[in-house]
Amino acid sequence: MTGATEILVALIAVTIALAAVFLVRPSITAGTTGKILAFVALAILPALCIDAGVSAHMQRSEQTQFCISCHAMETHGLSLYVDDPNYIPAYHFQNHLVPANQACYACHTDYTIYGPLKDKLQGMKRVYMQYISTPPKVIVINGGYSNAQCLHCHAGARGFMENPIHSAMMASLTTDQVSCITSGCHDTIHNADQLSNVKLWSPSK
User: Fold this and answer.
1) What is the 3-state secondary structure (H, E, C) of 58-100?
2) What's this model's pTM, rounded to 2 decimal places?
3) In this predicted model, what pLDDT tens digit does every residue of 55-88 receive, in sequence order?
4) In the chain, what are the domain boundaries?
5) CA 123/CA 110 separation, integer angstroms
C-alpha cells in the first residue's frame, strides 16, 4: 500500500471505532469533552478520510497499470512493448526515459483528471463512457497533443537542443505551430490498431 492508502485505512478504522463507541454509549456526549470528541469523530475525521481517499486514488490513477486496466486502453498499453524505436511511447517506456510505472501519466498530464477543472470534467466524461456508456473505438485527444508535453523534458536537454532541426524550429515548436508528432517527424505513436502486424519486445529476455 502507498503512504496515502495506509493513512486512509487508519483514519477509517479510527472513525468507525469512535462512531461505534458513540452508538453504544451515546451518554458520553453529555459532557463538554464528549461533545468535542463526537465533533471530531463525526465531522473532522470523515473530512480527513475524504481528503486521504482522494489523495490515495489520485496516486493510484497515476500508475501505468491503472491507465491500461480499462478495456479500451489495453492495446495502448500493449503498444509500449513494440520492438521498434520509431514508436515514440514504446521507445520512451522501454528505455526508462519516463518512469515505467508512470509512463502514461508522464506524457498525458495536461488534460483529463490531471489538468484544470474543465479538463477534469472531460476526464469524468471518459469515466462515464467506460462504466456506463460505450468507449469510442478510436481514442482521440481533444484539441490534439501539445508539444509542451514533450518539451517539459526535452527542452534544455543537450541532445535535443544541439539537433539543428530542433533548434531551427524551436519557436514553432513552443507555440504548437508545428507538432512534434507531425508527419515526417516523430509521427509513429501508439498505432494501437496495427499491433497485430508488429513484433513485440519481451522484458524477460
Assistant:
1) HHHHCCHHHHCCCHHHHHHHHHHHECCCCCHHHHHHHCCCCCH
2) 0.76
3) 888 788 889 998 898 888 899 999 999 999 999 9
4) 3-61, 70-145+181-197
5) 11
